[in-house]
User: Fold Exocyst complex component 3 from Macaca mulatta.
Amino acid sequence: MLQRPDQLDKVEQYRRREARKKASVEARLKAAIQSQLDGVRTGLSQLHNALNDVKDIQQSLADVSKDWRQSINTIESLKDVKDAVVQHSQLAAAVENLKNIFSVPEIVRETQDLIEQGALLQAHRKLMDLECSRDGLMYEQYRMDSGNTRDMTLIHGYFGSTQGLSDELAKQLWMVLQRSLVTVRRDPTLLVSVVRIIEREEKIDRRILDRKKQTGFVPPGRPKNWKEKMFTILERTVTTRIEGTQADTRESDKMWLVRHLEIIRKYVLDDLIVAKNLMVQCFPPHYEIFKNLLNMYHQALSTRMQELASEDLEANEIVSLLTWVLNTYTSTEMMRNTELAPEVDVGTLEPLLSAHVVSELLDTYMSTLTSNIIAWLRKALETDKKDWVKDTEPEADQDGYYQTTLPAIVFQMFEQNLQVAAQISEDLKTKVLVLCLQQMNSFLSRYKDEAQLYKEEHLRNRQHPHCYVQYMIAIINNCQTFKESIVSLKRKYLKNEVEEGVSLSQPSMDGILDAIAKEGCSGLLEEVFLDLEQHLNELMTKKWLLGSNAVDIICVTVEDYFNDFAKIKKPYKKRMTAEAHRRVVVEYLRAVMQKRISFRSPEERKEGAEKMVREAEQLRFLFRKLASGFGEDVDGYCDTIVAVAEVIKLTDPSLLYLEVSTLVSKYPDISRAQPQSLPSEARESRLLSLATCAAFSCTACA
Assistant:
């Protein structure tokens, strides 16, 4: 406290403060000690009083014991009085129930009449009176002599009709409960009466069971457990209602399952709405009637779905069942309906079908679908083949291109199956798409084989079928339609994250389709060149030199065919035009190299060369016309004919070898125009030179 000199002035103040604190502490200590001393004094006083009380009680007990020993003989002499009291109690009960005992037959008749009239509450009141009289007499008899079965049987027999009335009343109650969903809308008071009767019986059962714990006596027919039986009846009613919705069979109606499931959906939704809005008002809250009914319906539906799943279902029926179970049941059309909210929480409901059963159904569906798709594709191809031999042209699309119905049929079938699968789950939709693409791959291989056979059969007899060209064009166009449809199908039904894995089959199918189209185009060109064969053989002959119109006929024939080929879709028509151009030029060059003519003079060579140039221009004009719109250079092939003509037109033999070598170096693949390939690339130029010179009777090179 004292740290600075100026604080010395407060020493006296500090002393007084500390003195007050010390006095306060001493006062508290004295008060505490005094309080403890007072408590000890009080405790000692109470112990002294308790000791005196114990001595008094001990003396009183000794007096009571003495008096009791002296009264034993007196108590034994009162046994007759005790028996008289018991007998008096029984007689009093008999007198009290005497009126009811004598009126039992009348009450039974009245109760029976009330039950038949539907006055259930009044009937139950009288039944309770009868049971009360019976149970009271039997209880008194049990108290007096529990081993006397003869008297108990006598009482039970006299009230024997009571049990029959109870059973009859119960039947009426169960009938009302079975129609409860109808009754609650027409006459809710009747349903309330039934619930009140059940509640009365439940209270009596509880009272009887409580008395049983004390006395061991239980009246006949108790406990009735009518509340438990009520829920059993409701559960049986729900099960019967679900099972009774199947009005048709597969034999009578192919859509039997769809109809059956739709009726179930409507009935269950209507029943639950009625239960939520009306039935809950007729039952006590602790019955939880809506919750119990919801569980009953859910269990009954689960059982019914299991039964349906165990049947030998067809593919479309499996789809209908799974769509209903996995989607419809938990949708707004049923359990998520706004009228059932918020009491129904779909998240708490167990699945109607286990994952194992769903998996088995999906496996069965995929297996059946695979067989069906194979059969459908085979049938579609057979139908398309029948069209190929018709005498009428195939149909054209909106752009005028020939086509058959095969792509539309195939992809319509795929679309239908994918739409159905999408209703069940995304995973199944992807599986079905993969299946469709796999089967499409196999189908296209068969399609390729059938198109090849179609071409070979026609080449054996070119008069049959009559519309071979048109249907071959349709087959080629179908390839492009298939390509576009496959891309469209994948874009529509395939998610981006799985597209990479599924798209692996695309190159394979594109390759097969291109091969089919290529074979078809080749077959059509073969048809063209079979008609041109006679006129191609006239090229570079004496007849040709003297004024044959072979090239005119070739141009007219090619143009006529390509008027039909205009029905071919652009990608394939473009390739076909280029191939036709190349083949015509090749045949022309082959005619040059086959030494069909020997020019006897320079004038003849000049005349022949000029004719070749004119015909090259004629062919150039034709193929320019045919290739219009493709945006490609088509002059290169005809330039080869002009270049060969320039060689032929030479008058100086010393330049011939140089010009031929230049020609071969400019067109290194010109040797492919010969009937047989030359033996060696190294000798190609020399052999071509010799062949050309020999054809022109060039003595200088010979």
